[in-house]
Amino acid sequence: MNIEDLRVFKEVAKEGNITKTANNLNFVQSNVTAKMKRIEQKYGTKLFYRHKHGVTLTSPGKILLSYTEQVLQLMDEVEKKLKSSAPSGTLSIGTMETTAASRLPDILSVYHEQYPEVELALRTGTTEELIESSLNREIDGAFVAGEVNHPELEELEVFEEELVLISKKNILFSLDFNQLKNQIIIVFKSGCFYRGIFEKWLKSEGIIPTKIMELNTLDGVIGCVKAGLGIALITKSVADRLHQSENIKQFTLPKEYGMISTKFINHKDIVKTAAFREFMKGISFGACSNKP
């Protein structure tokens, strides 16, 4: 039994006549009769009373008709949704914590206003985790840092971030590397691209961090810096949002370490729904408008 059988069953129930149903659907009568027998065998019950004027539904037949109408309505709705060009359904986006805090609110706000039927699902993680999730098609795409260059992934550069060192104002007065040697380095967990840049920069200055505090959230990192527990590397777009009264000081890094591109990546073989295509149009336009 299949959906076509149910559509034929509904037509027979409406017409009360197998011959007329066959004519309406351009089927031979024996084909319609065979479909009705197949359904009766499937459910092990008689669905029609046969008489000289045609057929009439039995009590089980009336029950099946009620459910058949619901099933066919749902199938019609599914077909319309899947064939519709209007964005709908779920769009799952991965992002780094810093991007979620500084860049995504505006992007997602505009998108949601334009396409309220799309359910947005957000997942935060390190660049390493987000690349893995994209490769496994667990998410539709993700904002990550640095170069990716994976043969299974497509990537679009969307904006460039400046990284800055932050500390409580009375902890560091300048980028004095003698002072840095004695500071606790507050970082995200392993796999964070910015953490890798931080460690690479310190190593270039002959500093091997021995005091490391590893946290999972941006709020946690900033909170510990505010408390004077150590120093951290974050994007300037996030640091600039910290109010002066929060007693945080910024320090600029050398350009070779301080300027990092953010890319949007997705698996080449994901199903690119209308919701996904419109999201890509939005961030592509934003990427173009950010270029000189």
UniProtKB/TrEMBL annotation:
<dbReference type="InterPro" id="IPR005119">
    <property type="entry name" value="LysR_subst-bd"/>
</dbReference>
<dbReference type="Pfam" id="PF00126">
    <property type="entry name" value="HTH_1"/>
</dbReference>
<keyword id="KW-0238">DNA-binding</keyword>
<dbReference type="Pfam" id="PF03466">
    <property type="entry name" value="LysR_substrate"/>
</dbReference>
<dbReference type="InterPro" id="IPR036388">
    <property type="entry name" value="WH-like_DNA-bd_sf"/>
</dbReference>
<keyword id="KW-0804">Transcription</keyword>
<dbReference type="InterPro" id="IPR000847">
    <property type="entry name" value="LysR_HTH_N"/>
</dbReference>
<dbReference type="InterPro" id="IPR036390">
    <property type="entry name" value="WH_DNA-bd_sf"/>
</dbReference>
<keyword id="KW-0805">Transcription regulation</keyword>
<feature type="domain" description="HTH lysR-type">
    <location>
        <begin position="1"/>
        <end position="58"/>
    </location>
</feature>
<protein>
    <submittedName>
        <fullName>LysR family transcriptional regulator</fullName>
    </submittedName>
</protein>
<comment type="similarity">
    <text>Belongs to the LysR transcriptional regulatory family.</text>
</comment>
